[in-house]
Amino acid sequence: MNKSSISSARKFEKVCEIMETYSYNKNKLIPILQAVQEEYRYLPEEVLTFIAISLDLSPARVFGVATFYSHFALKPKGKYIIKVCDGTACHVKKSAANIEAICKRLNVTLDKNTTPDMLFTVETVSCLGACGIAPVVVVNDVVHPVMTPEKVVKIIDEIYKKETANELSD
Amino acid sequence: MNYPINLEEIKTGFEKKKNLISRRITVCGGTGCIANGAMNVYHEFINLLKSNNLDVTVDLKSENLKSGSILMSESGCHGFCQMGPLVKIEPDNILYVGVKKDDVPEIIETTIINNQLCERLLFEEPSNGKTCRGDEDIEFYKRQSRITLKNCGNINPNDIDEYIYTGGYSAAEKAYLRMTPEQICEEITFSGLRGRGGGGFPTGKKWQFAKAEKSDKKYIICNGDEGDPGAFMDRSVMEGNPHAVIEGMLIAGKAIGADEGYVYVRLEYPLAVKRIKQAVKVAEEYGFLGNNIFGTGKQFKINVMEGAGAFVCGEETALMMSIEGKRGMPTPKPPFPAQSGLWGKPTVINNVETLATVPYILNSGAKTFRETGTTESPGTKTFALTGHVANTGLIEVPFGTTLREIIYNIGGGVKNSDGSIDPKGFKAVQIGGPSGGCLIKENLDLPLDFDSLKSIGAMVGSGGLVVMNHETCMVKIARFFMQFTQNESCGKCVLCREGTKQMLALLDDIIEGRGTLETIDLLEQLGHAIQKGSLCGLGKTAPNPVLSTIRLFREEYDAHVVQKRCPAGQCNALMKPHIISELCKGCGVCMKKCPANAISGEKKMPHSIDEKLCIKCGACVSSCKFNAIAIGA
After folding, report:
1. N or C: which end of chain B has fewer CB within 10 A?
2. Can you give the CATH number for the domain in which A11 is found?
3. pLDDT score of A1 more than 50
4. pTM of the model
């Protein structure tokens, strides 16, 4: 067995475990996909097909659900997911300038939103319900209040610094 | 623990423990305050209290609770997120705002040990600079009537005993032991409670329809998919008082004869998900959920499901599709969920705030509930007040309160972009998010309720109030909402899917200077067509922000298409930057910044911009330190 097939066998083992916790209940497709994405940071195509067969659903149905909800990603996401809130409150407080600054700093666009080194993915979200401290930017699960273009760039620079330090110590 | 649970016993037990406490320090643990570092403040308090040899406890249930201890607790959202992290000290009745970790030693030294006030951490009224000691002194709180939010920010959301101590689960007990389903439905109908999720449908009626259906299985769904940008009432209730939501669902379950419920929460609210899940677990341990509720042999269980990021799932039929594990697309009504809902069974779907209000109604009676609010819209409503206003946050006011009261008294006035308060700055309020409309100066004294808002073409919606100052371009705001609904349209109805796309393109034409008067007419026509040709609320209301801004700010649209001018100076393509020669010092900064080399001039002499070369990027405007570059026509 070569290396890649070992890793894909492991991949499916974890997926089976997840489906097991939901008793292979097809009604629980969304929580299952959420748990799988939590594990791999995205939904690999072969995993989706595998889930479809295991739950006795058509692959089209599973792909349909995976593409309908914006939370699900069919492409791998970066290690750090930067969510920029562009809800009404953040928008009127100029969140657009933050989006622009982040994209410029990382050299990405909202369509091609992951950096080639797989470190960052930039997304906009419609409202995080933190309007009192608008505009907000969320990096993984940490909410950063009252952001400005200077502040977001500083956050990214700090992550880069941390990552380079980690690499050196490895 | 003995079953069924004796609420009185828990209350007296809690009170005894509470009386042992000398002081209580509550740190707000809502999303906003945590983002500002509330948890660091919380842990710093514990560490420093300990190192000062003060007895501190985080759990009233702890076995070796010493008399005179200080209780450190976390609360849900106070609603005053902008001033966070908030620290409340009782019984001194002090509210410190904007507390940082480094402020903790001073608070312990001054307030906890020496019983003095830290003046600099008190809230200062933005209007008159007066400092306020406790929340009762702050205009923002003083003018609200908090019923649904009463416990948010006051109790520890993770402590079920404290919820019971404040009267929690007594309404559910009453419903299960002493009321028939008919009586519950009648009481809620008589109270006049209307759905807080936006529609305003009478809750009691909804329950009666579901009760009348004969079925072996019925469901209660709590709709916590609060997707409207600019609204966070449901988040705060779920974070700050999750047991009230569970209790409301329990009561609804008894009323219609359901034995299972779902709480559908947005994935973007991780803390709300965590608190609700925790609360469900504890309620099960206490026997409020399970197979023998209050010893009646009745069953009720609650599942918590996280959404996956689709705004349309806030629509009830789409939400049910999502629970069933399908694409969240709406289905035609009838059949209504009350007849055929989740898996074809009769289902009641209520919003978080509605359900959290139910226990209050059963406890204090429908008559008392009707005493606040207006005849047709009784009770209170929470609004999320945001945008260009001095105090942003969550407020709860009786229906019938005017916009003027909300913006100027509770909100502390309208702010300019530089943060100063401008008495003449008010331009409009967007109410009801992407489904709602705008309210203008003329509407400031209109008593807000479901029907008054409908009569002027707006709606309560979920309750987001975004205040906008005179520097806001209404066409751009309309475009912002259009882009949102266009993005979130599920694609089922052609008019919604394609129509919103075309409306967005037309708005872009206007903003980018390609619009004509016909563009505006076309927008209106298309808007009406989408309203008629869409199945669900998303499509039916998607054109509202555009139609309402065209109606109220027609002159602004006209200026964009006829004079190619943006009166608020926000649309880049319509900018005509020119240098005011009296102010220009000839420093040359703008010349260096200009990417099109459109600026020329001698050193220390007023510069000028070549209109033909200018690409209207605005770089010169932001680079000028002397405000010498104007963007207006």
Report:
1. N
2. 1.10.10
3. no
4. 0.91
